[in-house]
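User: My instructor asked us to take a sequence, write out its structure as tokens, and then describe one feature of it. I'm not sure where to start. Here is the sequence I was given:
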Amino acid sequence: MLDLKAQDRRCRRKIRRGFKRVIRSVDFINGKEVGLFQQRLAKYLGVKHVIACGSGTDAIQISLMALDLVPGDEVIVPAFTFVAAAEAVRLLGLKPVFVDIDINTFNIDPASVERAITDRTRAIVPVHLFGQCADMTSIMEIAAKYRLFVIEDACQALGSDYIIREGTGQLQMGPFTYDYRCTDHGIRKKAGTIGHIGCTSFFPSKSLGAYGDGGAVFTNNDELADRIRKIACHGAGKRYIHQYVGVNSRLDTLQAVVLNAKLPFVEKHSAKRSRIAAFYDKEFVSCMQLKVPSRAPHSTHIFHQYCLLCRSERERNALQFHLESWGIPTRVYYPLPLHLQQAFAGLGYRKGDFPVAENVAKRIMAIPIHPTLKRRQMRYISKGILSFFD
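Assistant: Let's start with the prediction itself. The structure tokens for your sequence are:
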């Protein structure tokens, strides 16, 4: 599914030199490379503040901690996604409220979000799934209407662009004032920079991957950035002076070396995945048994995953078995929606509550897409898939 060895060959010498510098300096935690990476990523994203941390899951949890939410407060998350967002909500004693997804983009459905809002709702966590952005204009309009925070989970979409439609507003919550300006039709903003807070992961398989876990939080709000920075370091602004109850979640300097070396390749790698996706589209578009990924009009797509929809779960499973015999790997992201997971059984959801998410989970299948995939490999993959339907 992913060839990390081939990707890392391009950066290997630079990374090794960086490792030697760090080892000689014994500057392992919050070293110079971390500060440099935060500056470079902030410039790339066009955002004021980037706070690096230990993982993408930590990034979401720290963001929630910075909002002064209290146990029982509700946070809306999509039912079809990786568990991290809902997990972080639950760990803080908050209540994850699941909503359905859009059948075409697999992203959170704004209409479902608005229907789920109650007097206990405090935040929305739209997840930019598989590499393209959710409908953030609609999400931000809903957030302004009901005075809610928005934390973007951009862990799978770092580098994708959101094309903003018209709209502008201001949201006042406690000591914080948030502006969102969408007045210039067609202006582009990077995923994770539209809501009040954005989060990403540097897990090795991501578009910008480290040699282990890592993550970051983005925001344009100075007060929130100060809180997040302190919470990520035991709630302290100065050593042994703790303003908040925090956590220990920092990006180590060796991982920052890797990320600094890889950051210049993000756009190039995203463009390569897009070309591979275009090849797959052309190969499969006439196959009536498969549905190729849809592109949202409001977002570019970096194709963290290329996911096909089969006609049924049975056919999907049979196709996977067939491809295994060809030596072609596949994955199911995700086989069971969150509202049906045992971990969230106490919330009272039942089968049938979110029909789109449940339907997609039964039919979806991801095939290899990574920037070092060769043309002959792409042709072999498409040949193997199409041969199943011959």
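For the description part of your assignment, you could build on this observation: Residues 266-284 form the longest helix (19 residues). Try explaining in your own words what that tells you about the chain.
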